[in-house]
Amino acid sequence: MKIEDARGMLLRTVLLLALVAQGCAYPSTIVVEDPTDSGVESDVPAMDAGSDTASPVDVRLTDQSTTMTCPPGLADCDGNAMNGCEAVLSTDVNNCGACRNVCVERPNGTPICASSVCETRCTPGFENCDGNVMNGCEVNTTINPASCGSCGRPCPMGQQCTDGTCGCPVGTTHCATAGVCADFATDNRHCGRCDFACPAGQFCSAGMCMAMCGAGTTRCGTLCVNLQTDRSNCGSCGTTCPTNNTCSAGTCRCAAPYTVCSGACVLLSSTNSHCGACGTACPRNATCSSSICRCPTGLTLCSNRGVLTCVDLATDEANCGTCGTVCPLTTFCSSRVCRPFVIVTG
């Protein structure tokens, strides 16, 4: 072996060991420049003719890596050159306006990225009535009597909100002049019809003013009531049924179309925590519609160990292409297919 070759190999070895010791990445190219060679680069250090002493050398490292340039509105946020500029900054909830700017999920809503700004799209039946983005869409306008159907739309006194519409409970009639829902059978102020009050000392029973409560009714205060059907005196005087309940056979029950779940009357068709059946909870970014959990556009509903989750089948490594298809450790999910990692060197 020539002394020039041996010297070049030794120099390269020393340089690489020094780089590794300092935690540097393996350089793409090692260039050894001889100042006496008029700027011509060579892999091997030069030596003076007829001499065992090498001329001075300048050793420098070059990195052949390049920075990806993306078109306006796109960005390489995952650092994976294989999928290029994968993030659309105007609509990507995980990279909204800038890489890693994640849109936060709020109660009863789905995070969206609109024109590079994070917003919350309320679940149908819910609205943000207080203007506070932190508590999301806090009002259920399908049952809230103060905001029935829309924010700030209160129901008249005595009416209840059902499916976003104000109305009187079953067995009562709305009396516009008084602004109340009256039970003509027992209401002393609206006995048999609106605004017909019983004289002092008499009670309304079966729609007629009587000196004593009639058969099937009980005196509660100044009223003759049917304890089997009266929501304000259900089963006993003073026992009031909750909103969206009716009194049947002296017991408070959920009024149709409500169902009792965990002690509350809920709509199985639109309640995220009881979608289609009591206890069936939709993922936080899904919406219960027509008793079915529905994921945002581009996502699919999968069940992982009994827990419903909205996933992107194109990139989810636990659900790649289809629900439950898990990519091996040495692969990643891209375009709905598990693909091996590729290590690019040089």
Topology overview:
Elements: H1 3-21, E1 29-33, E2 41-42, E3 58-62, E4 74-75, E5 87-88, E6 109-114, E7 117-122, E8 126-127, E9 139-140, E10 160-162, E11 165-167, E12 173-175, E13 180-182, E14 203-205, E15 208-210, E16 218-220, E17 223-225, E18 245-248, E19 251-254, E20 259-261, E21 264-266, E22 287-289, E23 292-294, E24 300-304, E25 307-311, E26 331-334, E27 337-340
What can you see in these coordinates?
It is built from 1 helix and 27 strands. The protein has one helix at residues 3-21; strands spanning 29-33, 41-42, 58-62, 74-75, 87-88, 109-114, 117-122, 126-127, 139-140, 160-162, 165-167, 173-175, 180-182, 203-205, 208-210, 218-220, 223-225, 245-248, 251-254, 259-261, 264-266, 287-289, 292-294, 300-304, 307-311, 331-334, 337-340. A hairpin with a 2-residue loop joins strand 18 (245-248) and strand 19 (251-254). Mean pLDDT is 79; it is low at 1-66.
